[in-house]
Amino acid sequence: MSNFYELNLNELDKELSPLEKREWDNIYASYRSGTPLSGKVSGVDRRRIQDTPDESHDQLYFLVVVPYRVKIMIPEEETGFWDSREQAVRVMRGMFGTKIDFVITAIDRENSLCVASRKRAMEIQRRMFAQTNPRIGNRIETQILAAGSTSVIASAGGFDFHLHAKELTYNRVPDYRDVFHPGEICTAVIQEYDPQTRQLSGISIRDAEPDPYIGARERHPLGCRRSCIITGKKNGRVYCSLEENLDCLCYYSSMLYDGEFQIGDRVLVSVVKYLDDRRVILGKILRKW
C-alpha cells in the first residue's frame, strides 16, 4: 500500500466519473481529518493473516462497506468495543444491511480499497452525545445492529448494548428476529448514565412505550372473555396476546389437550387473576376461536 501523501491524486482521479470523484473526495477528507463517513454493511470477508497450523487463528474478519465503487474494510477489532473476539464476529455476521459510521484509516488508491475504524467514529459520537447533557429518563435514538432469537445488539450515543427481554418488549416474543431488524431505528430511554465518566451504560427500548399493564384491569376485568392469539409456549406455560404488547399467561380448561394448540392459533381466553406484584395476568384457555 503506497504512502497516501506521495500519491499524485490529480493523475489518479482524472478519469473518474462525477460520482466516483465525490466518493473519493469523501474518503480523502475522512482520512486527512478523521471525520466519519456512513455506509451500509454489505457483507463480511475473511482474510488469511499468517501461516499457522491453528486454522482458527489465521483468519481475520472484516465488515465490508461499498458506498459506490470503493471497497471499505473494517477489521474485527475496529468494529466496536466488544468483550471478546467471538462476540465481535457473532455481531458482525448479523449486521448485514445496517448503516454504520466509520473513519478511514488507510487508503490503497491503486486497488480502490480502504481500511476503516468504526471505533473511532463511536468515540466521536460519544463526545457529541456528552455535549447534549444526557440525563436518566431522556429519550435517545437507537439503532438495531443485529438481532437474535432471545436478544438484540443496539447502538446509541456511540455505545453498543446487548439488550434482553426486559429492555426490549413488555410482552413475550418467541423470536426477536421477527420484531427487530438490522438498521432499524428505535427510540429508547436512558436508564444509566454517569456524567462524571460520560458513560452511557443502560438503555431500554421497552420503556419508551406506555406500560400496557396500567389500566389493564379496567380494560379486561376478572371473568371477562377475550379473543387472543397464542404467541408462545414454554415449560407448560402458554402465552396469549390480550392486546398489543400485553400478554396473558394461560393454562388450559381441563377438557383440552395441549397438542391441539399451536403458536398463532386464535383462542377464547377467560381472565382469571391479576398478580400485581409480578405484573402478570393469568387466564384460562376455553377453546379455539
From TrEMBL:
Top-level lineage group: Bacteria
| InterPro entries from the UniProt entry | NA-bd_OB-fold, S1_domain
Q: Which GO terms describe its molecular function?
A: nucleic acid binding
Q: CDD domains of this UniProt entry?
A: S1_like
The stretch of residues making up the signal peptide is none
The record's section on SUPFAM superfamilies has: Nucleic acid-binding proteins
Ranges for domain S1 motif come to: 135-205, 221-285
List residues traversing the bilayer.
Answer: none
Q: What is the protein's given name?
A: S1 motif domain-containing protein
Please tell me the species this chain comes from: Candidatus Gallacutalibacter pullicola
